[in-house]
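Lab notes, practical 5.
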Amino acid sequence: MTGPSVRALDRWSAPAAVDAVFAGLSDHSRYLRFHAPVPRLTRSFRDKLIDLDGDRHAAVVAEVLGQPIGISRLVRTGRGTAEVSVAVVDRWHRRGVGRMLLTEITALAGGLGYLELHGDVLPENTPVVRLVRGAMPGARTVHADGVVHFSFPVGWAFGLPTHEDLLAAISRP
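Output from the prediction step:
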């Protein structure tokens, strides 16, 4: 079997990729990814997921033989910061696809000048909490408001943290 490859996702290929990955998620996986029951994508929600400009909204897709099996997205939330998310179709869980996607989206974020990635994971989604800790060593996690909030200085993925990285990490609540 051919292994997955990861590439940047663009607005022209995003609709098919989003539809394929969403269709490959079980109801439980959809709940864990979106933090709510999402039996189908509404038009407006789908439009938000496929609205990629390669900067403020960017994504990478994992594929096997041209078939999308996972997506990781980033959405700018502030100066130098972006929220990151990941979804992998159920058939490909626990095969390293999520780690590949997070590694690639972190590299993309660094290339775009982002300094920090952050996100929220439901506490019962222990595989993704472990994934974040493994793919983003040094990520800070805080349990609050019924979710696990994580933050990761992007520079840490490319080597030792800078003095500024360390100061920023210890000054955040």
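Observations recorded by the TA: Residues 5-171 form a domain with the Aminopeptidase fold (CATH 3.40.630.30). The chain has one domain: 5-171.
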